[in-house]
């Protein structure tokens, strides 16, 4: 059975992106794909300390909740990531996770010698994001970060959905169309995985 790891990146457990990701998870499960959910805000994860202990064997030298999350991501066929937009970027929780994956980047490119810019695309990924405002460039920074993060995860950014005008945690309740869009995106990802 195909497996997806879903990463909740907001500090709010019941906020906009959490609601959207829950819908995507439900959509994926409706297609018979197993989904494991990870709530970053419940975890203890240090930021990258840039000590490059990972140069030895690709293993991050800081031992905390990063290792089980990394294992859950690398064991999956698909990734779903949801983040609110904070100052035109992903949340701090998501950024910490991204930076800790520098150890994986080191493993791939410095230890195993994979040429930079070469993608392996072993997995498929979906990115969901929400912001309060309506600016044209609201998601540009986060999208670029996620694209390169997914690259480190050997994950093709198969789909992304962005939701504007969501500020208070309950704002999402007034948007059933956003929720069904997220559910559809989750179901689509699951179908793509099952067809692969
Ligand atoms: C620290 C912080 C920074 C934010 N920065 C932005 C921003 O740059 N642009 C924006 O449109 N909304 C910004 N917001 C609003 C959130 O993106 C918005 O409330 C979002 O819906 C939160 O999603 P969540 O409920 O999943 O946490 C910010 C909120 C916080 C707490």
**Strand order in space, largest sheet:** 2-1-3-4-5
CATH topology: Rossmann fold
**Coarse structural class:** alpha/beta
Order of helices and strands: EHEHEHHEHEH
Q: Main sheet?
A: 5 strands, parallel
Our count of helices gives 6
Portion in helices: 25-40%
What distance separates the N and C termini? 12 Å
Strand percentage: 15-25%
Q: What is the CATH superfamily?
A: Flavodoxin domain
Question: Can you identify the CATH class?
Answer: Alpha Beta
User: Any low-confidence stretches, pLDDT <50, length ≥5?
Assistant: none
Description:
With 196 residues, the protein is α/β, with parallel strands linked by helices. The protein has helices at residues 16-29, 66-74, 92-100, 102-111, 140-152, 176-195, and strands at residues 3-8, 34-39, 78-84, 123-130, 155-163. A five-stranded parallel sheet has the order 2-1-3-4-5, sandwiched between helices. Strand 1, helix 1 (16-29) and strand 2 (34-39) form a beta-alpha-beta unit. The two termini are 12 Å apart. The model has no long low-confidence stretch (mean pLDDT 97). Flavin mononucleotide binds at residues 10, 12, 15-18, 84-88, 130-133, 138, 166-167, 169.
Structure at a glance:
This protein has 196 residues and is α/β, with parallel strands linked by helices. The chain contains six helices and five strands.
């Amino acid at each position: 059975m195909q497996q997806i790891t879903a990463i909740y990146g907001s500090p709010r457990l019941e906020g906009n992106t959490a609601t959207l990701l829950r819908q995507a998870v439900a959509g994926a499960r409706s297609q018979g794909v197993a989904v494991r959910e990870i709530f970053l805000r419940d975890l203890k994860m240090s930021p990258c300390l840039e000590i490059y202990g990972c140069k030895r064997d690709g293993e991050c030298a800081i031992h905390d909740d990063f290792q089980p999350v990394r294992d859950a991501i690398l064991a999956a066929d698909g990734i779903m990531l949801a983040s609110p937009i904070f100052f035109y970027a992903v949340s701090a929780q998501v950024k910490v996770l991204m930076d800790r994956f520098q150890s994986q980047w080191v493993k791939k490119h410095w230890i195993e010698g994979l040429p930079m810019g070469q993608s392996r695309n072993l997995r498929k990924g979906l990115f969901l994001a929400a912001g309060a405002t309506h600016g044209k460039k609201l998601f540009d920074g986060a999208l670029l970060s996620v694209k390169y993060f997914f690259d480190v995860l050997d994950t093709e950014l198969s789909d992304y959905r962005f939701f504007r005008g969501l500020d208070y945690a309950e704002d999402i309740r007034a948007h059933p169309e956003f929720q069904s869009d997220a559910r559809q995106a989750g179901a689509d990802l699951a179908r793509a995985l099952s067809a692969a």
